[in-house]
Write a structure and sequence with these properties.
This is Major facilitator superfamily (MFS) profile domain-containing protein. One of its GO terms (molecular function) is transmembrane transporter activity. It comes from Arctia plantaginis (Wood tiger moth). The chain is mostly helical and 502 residues long. The protein is 79% helix and 0% strand. It is globular, with a radius of gyration of 24 Å. The termini are far apart.
Amino acid sequence: MCEKKFCDQTGEKIGDKMTNITPETRIMMMRSSDGRNSYRRQIWAALAVSLGPFAAGLSKGYMSPAIASMQDSRSNQGAFTVSDQQASWIASLSLLGAFIGGILGGMAMRLGRRNVLIATALPYTLAWLATALSTGVHMISAASFCGGMLICCINMTTQVYVTEIAVPEIRGCLSSVLKILSQIGILISFSIGAYLNWYQLALMVAAAPVLLFFALFFIPETPSSLLLRGKEQEAEESLQWLRGPEADIRQELATIRTNILASKRYNGGHTSKFKALLSKRMTRPVLITCGLMFFQRFTGANLFNFYAVKLFKKTLRTMNPHGGAIATSVAQLLASCLSGMLIDNVGRLPLLMISGVMMSIALAGFGSYAYYEDVFRNTTDIMQSEPGSYDWIPLLCVLTFTIAFSLGISPISSLLIGELFPLEYRSTGSALATSFSHLCGFVNVKTAADFQDHIGLYGLFWMYAGISVLCLLFVVLFVPETKGREIDEMDPKYVESLCINR
């Protein structure tokens, strides 16, 4: 009797306490103690969709060696010639296409995240086949535009997919897997691009989306997307598959369902659809993510991806410029791996701050070296007397910048797109932030040559250094920490309460 009475009293006390804890805590308590095994299927699903960023990395790494090949008459075999301005259009049109792709992808994601990936994978292969078979600058530019449009849909959707399927403990790590696969793709293109010409390299890139297409048939749609479209049974099956056959998903499923309904009632009962888009739940995440995307694009990262070989030809006197591009890609890969290990332990904000400081120093250093080369090279014989002895300076600056960029702002700005937007706005918000990002990228890549003509290579990178300092201030003042939080469909009041509250 005493033992039963003690159990009853204890049960009442625990029950009282359970009513006071948040849904997030309740879900964490209900997850099995063997939680690491339940991550296995989430990792499989993330690896499957990460073939999309892998294909994107191949295409991003393609531009630098391909442009150098197109401008080399020996590699181009006299098919057509490409001027510097035409090369800037070929590189930047992929970003302009991505701007359009972000808008279209945001609308298409309402039909399902997995469905968008299936629908875009094979057409992306066709775009690269068209690139390989191009017979003129106009044809290759059109293929670049179409490819950029499709890969933006793929990249944006994979980030949202991973954010929605992953539990908070591994969400940042799985998001970094997307960046890691992208960096591997860049490294492969840089490495093989040193030996293949532009159309042979395009054929290699065309094979990657085929792998993505077939991998998608082995993973489910995200539970959140299914519930949002009213597919209750399919959502339950999807969540059960992701969490494991032994996991108790009832509380998590009920919480997602409840908050979706609450969000719909809030938006329907308090404001019109247009005014809902201007609410704090939408505008604050848009301002934060678009701000990060602006700084990500205007700190010089695109130049090191699209024009790495050309930049190293101008600053490295004896070292192979392809070797410098490959070293940069290796540094990106290692930094992305390190970011994946740290992002869920250290947090988003510390990595963003470290990234901002290191990028500012590296960009200022590269600009200073370019100034020394440009101004003093013809008035001193130090450089001539020791050819190549200073090659390590620009290479070190580029490697430092690359590590800082891949450690912080590159993976985290993409991760925050999935974390900050409420579920009902995630498609629209992702489209806005991603399209804005690629619009900034287009402007940056297209105008870089013009800026360089007016203010010099050193002025261009000093400008990037100043923008990087502003990025650091923006992070300190406005970006919230999201480490360990359930995505907001578990707590619909979270995004509305975003503010500068460290």
